[in-house]
Amino acid sequence: MWNTLVSIFPYAIAYTIPMLMTSLGGLYSERSGVTNLGLEGLMLVGYFASAITIKMSEATLGINALPIGLLVGVAAGAIFSLLHAFASINLKADQVISGTAINMLAAALTVYLARTISGSGNVRIMMGIVRKNIPFLSKIPIIGPLFFSQSYWTTWVCLAIWGLSWILLYKTSFGLRLRACGEHPSAVASAGISVHKMRYFGVAMSGALAGLGGAVILITYSGEFNGTVAGLGFLSIAALIFGQWKPLGILGATFFFGIATTIANVSQVIPSLQVIPPVFFKIFPYVATLLALVLFSKNSAAPKASGEPF
C-alpha cells in the first residue's frame, strides 16, 4: 500500500499544480470584482502558445526552450484575458456571457491555428521536464518520498507564486485595495483609487496564471497540445468556490481534485481498485465537485461586488 501511495503521489501533485495556478488566477479576478468563467479558455491559450513556441525553438535552444515556452504561455493568457476585461469593465457586459465567449473563442481559435500551422489539431514537443528527487529533502522519512521525490521544478516555482500571491493579497496595501474593489468599489473610488485599473490587473493576472497552468500541463505530463485541457479550467473554478476564495482554501481544494483525478487515471493498475468499474472513478472528481458546491453554497464567502459592473 505504501509503495502504491509513493508511486501515485507525484502524479497527484502534477495534476494539482495547473489547477492551483488557474484557480489562483480566478482568485485575483474575483477578488477585484470580475467574475471569470473563461479560465478554461485561457488555459487553452497558454497551452497552445507554449506548445508552438517550444516546437519552433527546441531545435536551436534545447532545454532552454521550456522556460521560454512557459513565459510565452503566461503572456498569451494575460493578453487574451484583456478581451474579457474590456468587455466586462469598459463595456459593462454580462460577465458570465463574456467568460463563456472566451472559452468558445479560445477553443476554436487554438485548434484552427494548430491545424493551420502543424497540419493537424495536435502540436507535439520533443522534450519536457525530467522529474528529479530533491537532494536531502527526498530522504526525509514519510514526507520525503511523497513530496520531494520525482518532482518537477515547475511545482516549486508555482508554489512560490502561490506564496507570494498570498503575501500580496493579504499583507500589502495594494492587496487590500484589490480586495476592496471586489467588496465595496464605490468606497475605493471615493478614496481616489481607479477601480477600473485594479480590475484590469486582476483579470490580467487571472489570464497570466491560467496561461501558466496550461503551459505547465504541456511540459510536465502532456507533451503535446491536443485542443483540450479536459475540463481542468472548470474544476479550477469549482476549487475556487470550494476553497472559499482564499489562497489556503484553494490549495487544499485543488489538491483534493488532483488526488481524485489521479485515482481515476490509475485505478486499473492498482489491484485493490480493479474490482470497481472504472467509470465510477472517472466521474468521481465531478461528483465530488457537485457535492462540495452544495455543502459550501450556504456559507459562501464570495466577494460581494463580484460580477457587478462599476
From TrEMBL:
Where does it localize?
Answer: Cell membrane
Concerning InterPro entries, the annotation shows: ABC_transp_permease
CDD domains to which the protein is assigned, alphabetical: TM_PBP1_transp_TpRbsC_like
Q: Does the keyword rRNA processing apply?
A: no
- State which residue ranges cross the membrane: 6-27, 34-54, 66-89, 96-114, 151-170, 200-219, 225-243, 250-270, 276-296
Tell me one GO molecular function of this protein: transmembrane transporter activity
**One GO CC term, this protein:** plasma membrane
- What is the recorded membrane topology of this protein? Multi-pass membrane protein
Q: Keyword annotations for this protein? A: Cell membrane, Membrane, Transmembrane, Transmembrane helix
Name by which UniProt lists this protein: ABC transporter permease
What organism does the record attribute this protein to?
Answer: Sphaerochaeta halotolerans
Tell me the classification of the organism that encodes this protein.
Answer: Bacteria, Pseudomonadati, Spirochaetota, Spirochaetia, Spirochaetales
